[in-house]
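Figure 6 in text form: structure in, sequence out.
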């Protein structure tokens, strides 16, 4: 990493909510009108821990209350190098117990669905625009490993 410059830090946390052999995904509409499938969770506020961000964001995006968070992995490093959204990222992944009814209140979420493990990767869109870090294949590598039962604790970006 080039230490002669300062990058903004993006901190986010997502939760693997599992029901049998299904993973809960949220559906969001992108600026180009397409549907993006992602893990429930999102950006941490400045004074918020990644675990607290995960709990707050999952509630807003799904309506579910999560408890007993267990750390799974951390993604860390420079993201979107050379784009207008270049940043240093710290993305945590957790699992958790959950209860409640699916009832998203986030206006960006257009749906929430349980997806069989074998169908998750088929819903992921990679590629342009590069400003959408969720479309970077490196962001989805920990999820692929988690579904396969081979999650690592650390993923450099």
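Output sequence:
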């Amino acid at each position: 990493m080039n230490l002669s410059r300062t990058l903004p830090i993006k901190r986010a946390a997502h939760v693997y909510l599992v029901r049998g052999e299904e993973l809960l995904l949220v559906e969001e509409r992108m600026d180009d009108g397409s549907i993006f499938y992602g893990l429930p969770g999102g950006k941490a506020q400045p004074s918020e821990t990644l675990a607290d961000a995960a709990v707050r964001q999952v509630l807003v995006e799904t309506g579910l209350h999560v408890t007993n968070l267990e750390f799974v992995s951390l993604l860390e490093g420079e993201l979107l190098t050379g784009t207008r959204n270049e940043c240093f990222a710290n993305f945590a992944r957790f699992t958790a117990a959950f209860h409640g009814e699916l009832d998203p209140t986030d206006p960006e979420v257009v749906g929430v669905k349980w997806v069989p493990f074998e169908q998750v990767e088929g819903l992921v869109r990679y590629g342009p625009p590069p400003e959408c870090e969720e479309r970077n294949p490196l962001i989805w590598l920990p999820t692929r490993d988690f579904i396969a039962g081979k999650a690592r604790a650390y993923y450099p970006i």
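Caption detail: The domain at 9-156 is CATH 3.90.79.10 (Nucleoside Triphosphate Pyrophosphohydrolase).
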